[in-house]
């Protein structure tokens, strides 16, 4: 850690520095607590563990201690993970990928509200979630007058800092001090009927300020840390991901050739994970150039594109880098300034901006059905995986959206293409293009029946195609007056039930 | 009809006046045809019937004659109806409520693309639907230079007139000439990356022009008519609708009291039909005043509110009045000028505006499930009813949304609350409040499990509650590691199957 409190130049807030356990003592049973953090970046790294200890001690004394936990999106084992292990969370929103927390949601212990990320801040302002008692927000530095240099994500921090009764700041010396100037925090959003247009017409336009603000009088504690972000490992694309990427790149090339988009495309949004990184690698290897991203997360693949010049610049709300990516970013941080901008997730995912800019959205899925409905969140209809995140914000308002997935999971036991999805996150009205390693189904302007043929023939694993076609044909034949979206209701979800019963959706195992 | 061509003051276009059959002869097999019309208002009244005759004659000669039919939304028996009866439609978008057309969609003859109304125009510009060969658009009058006074709906007319290769205009003398000044047609929308903010911050603000424009060189025919709009009958609220309305009004009153919205609420959107009209009647009988509507359709109920002063003004894209409503509107038309504004459906339903203005959305549904997913379009999962229309545009981006329905249909044989909906149009992430005659379920900030309790207890018909609770409890018990949204997949759709098999969802018949 650098010299004590070297990053706290506000004299008032310097007096509030204390150890994490003293800060955690200011959080009470029943509080709603809004913490920073998005894709494992910029979450508080000391207070959650201290709070875990406080909760555990209370539980050992036979006392109740549970909080409502609100975040930007996913955090890390030392935030969501420790609080879940303390059994100290009653409700959780708006997105989670922590396995310990997920298990408690799926066991019924934690009530999870899975919200569109562009909605979470405004639903809090609207009073839909109740009062926010405490904000715990990681920052890079504290300037005089309550100005805060944000850290590696912005997420919902503006809202938590504004709305909370009490604020705890974590100043993380591990975050590069050079972050100052990488952020654009918009303070113009009002409540209806006082809202104004968002005057942003280019992804890299600044419409806000480089700092978060906090009322110093609300800051009850400042804790100093020196710990790295979660930094999930990043693996090189496998053959399946590379094949998916090839289909996407070829399709984009054809769209440009058909005159449906400019040569440097339109702003790109890319979900996280290896398939998304493979698509970025595919774009980097292509002759596309001068691209721009309007997205949620800067992952390793985007650094490649920025370095090669394929990507001119990227607007997001968070980093989501590997250890290697972080090292690389920190080494060349001055070269990225002005080419990377982090915004509040309310703005990075805003429907108004996504539609205006004409974003090309690329997101993963868990399963799609033959008629083009997409499930992004639920395993076999009941268990949550992570949450809808920003996929709905982007896909619903995009110029063009892609949903990307390997055609099978669990070594072929699960088909990603099913007769009927077991949960719908993106409706048939909203899905443009589905891609697997086998091919790409362009669903634009097609009726449900026409979509079925295309999805089965282009995307399904060949081993599942005959059964999918057989279902489609029998559904068509069964009710001659119900052929808009023909389904056999007593069989529509039988693939999932078979998986639960036998460990495979197929009948040939 | 008034004096011949008295409403065509453009000398060039006066030379293009011809009978409907001569105009219909300019439409060819295979053409995509974009017609005017929204909620049975402002559709062409002569050319479709003439085209029906042309199609029928071709079919009798053994020749193929089918068109792609694009509209604003629903039209009427003498537009959708006659073309369906001629078996002359291959594809249809974006919304239909004509029973003859519906039967052909459900028989598999017509390919139907059920699109969000805020998307239909832009997806056409983006090239997703292919080329538009002909536009057939009803207008009130033709001014010099290709300026057109729109009629009782605007819908997608701007787009059809701009994009079509050939244009046929129907000048309808039945439409009041006083319509001039009732419209605001926005001509500022560009394709990405050239889009600008929509600078509208108040529902009644004018951002466009009172006229549609057409290039006179593209106008191949002008047909004069003198026929009334469809004008569906309007019935007074029954006890069920009145009970639903009471719950909504009480809830809004409580929201104001809780400080979550202003005393004159926020802009209202209201779907069509008797439940919607009942809610309007409920608002009219309440002490709410100075309200404003930002909606799709002006129906009879809105005239009541405008007359009483409960409603200050209304922005929409169309009228949807009864015969009585039309007579009343025409009698006092000058009093409504400046208080009613019709816009393109791209603008009336625009996500950017719906979110900015903070619209309160009220729409019907076919069924909702215990976890808050809503089906607005499909009967028993397979057969289309009408289409999603604007419900997704409004609900997804609203400040607050309501979904309204009687708790049962078909004399109690169908429960509007089911274990799992057979089709999803509005996902669990997007549904705020469900209302039946029994009560109101406020789902904001609730997990799926908490929603289930509330929906069953507040909204379900008491006769179906035990079976719904039993399902919920058995689903909870079945898989202790899958309790986020517990479902029994082999039973989830069994209520629908039972209805198909026995004529009732209940087991007590």
UniProtKB/TrEMBL annotation, chains A, B:
SUPFAM superfamilies: NagB/RpiA/CoA transferase-like (SSF100950). One of its GO terms (molecular function) is hydrolase activity. Keywords: Hydrolase. The keyword Hydrolase applies. Residues 18-224 form the Acetyl-CoA hydrolase/transferase N-terminal domain. Residues 325-471 form the Acetyl-CoA hydrolase/transferase C-terminal domain. Belongs to the acetyl-CoA hydrolase/transferase family. This is Acetyl-CoA hydrolase/transferase family protein.
């Amino acid at each position: 850690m650098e010299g004590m409190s070297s990053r706290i130049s506000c004299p008032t807030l310097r007096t509030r520095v204390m150890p994490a356990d003293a800060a955690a003592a200011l959080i009470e049973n029943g509080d709603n607590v809004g913490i920073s953090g998005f894709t494992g970046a910029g979450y508080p790294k000391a207070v959650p563990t201290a709070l875990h200890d406080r909760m555990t001690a209370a539980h050992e004394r036979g006392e109740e201690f549970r909080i409502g936990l609100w975040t930007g999106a996913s955090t890390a084992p030392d935030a969501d993970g420790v609080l879940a292990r303390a059994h100290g969370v009653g409700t959780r929103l708006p997105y989670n990928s922590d396995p310990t927390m997920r298990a408690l949601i799926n066991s019924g212990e934690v009530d999870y509200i899975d919200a569109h990320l562009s909605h979470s801040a405004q639903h809090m302002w609207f009073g839909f979630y109740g009062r926010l008692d405490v904000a715990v927000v990681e920052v890079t530095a504290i300037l005089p007058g309550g100005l805060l240099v944000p850290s590696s994500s912005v997420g919902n921090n503006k809202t938590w800092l504004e709305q909370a009764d009490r604020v705890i700041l974590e100043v993380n010396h591990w975050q590069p001090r050079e972050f100052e100037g990488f952020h654009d925090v918009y303070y113009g959003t009002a409540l209806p009927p006082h809202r104004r247009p968002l005057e942003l017409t280019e992804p890299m336009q600044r419409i806000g300020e480089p700092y978060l603000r906090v009322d110093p009088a609300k800051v009850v504690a400042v804790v100093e840390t020196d710990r790295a972000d979660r930094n999930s490992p990043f693996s090189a694309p496998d053959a399946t991901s590379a094949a998916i990427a090839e289909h996407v790149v070829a399709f984009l090339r054809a769209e440009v050739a058909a005159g449906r988009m400019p040569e440097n495309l339109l702003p790109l949004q890319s979900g996280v994970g290896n398939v998304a990184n493979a698509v970025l690698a595919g774009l980097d290897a292509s002759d596309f150039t001068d691209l721009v991203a309007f997205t949620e997360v800067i992952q390793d693949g985007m650094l490649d594109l920025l370095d090669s010049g394929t990507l001119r610049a990227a607007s997001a709300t968070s980093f989501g880098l590997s250890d290697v990516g972080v090292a690389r970013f920190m080494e060349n941080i001055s070269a990225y300034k002005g080419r990377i901008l982090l915004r509040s997730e309310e703005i990075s995912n805003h429907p108004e901006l996504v539609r205006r800019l004409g974003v090309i959205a690329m997101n993963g899925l868990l399963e799609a059905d033959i008629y083009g409905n997409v499930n992004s969140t639920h395993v076999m209809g009941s268990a949550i995986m992570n949450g809808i995140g920003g996929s709905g914000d982007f896909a619903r308002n995009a110029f063009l959206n892609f949903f990307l997935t390997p055609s099978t999971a669990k070594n072929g036991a699960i088909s990603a293409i099913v007769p009927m999805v077991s949960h719908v996150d993106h409706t048939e009205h909203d899905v443009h293009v589905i891609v697997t390693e086998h091919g790409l189904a362009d669903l634009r302007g097609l009726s449900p029946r026409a979509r079925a043929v295309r999805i089965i023939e282009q995307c399904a694993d060949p081993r599942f195609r005959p059964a999918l076609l057989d279902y489609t044909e029998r559904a068509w034949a069964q009710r001659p007056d119900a052929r808009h979206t023909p389904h056999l209701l007593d069989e529509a979800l039988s693939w999932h039930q078979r998986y639960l019963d036998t460990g495979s959706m197929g009948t040939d195992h």
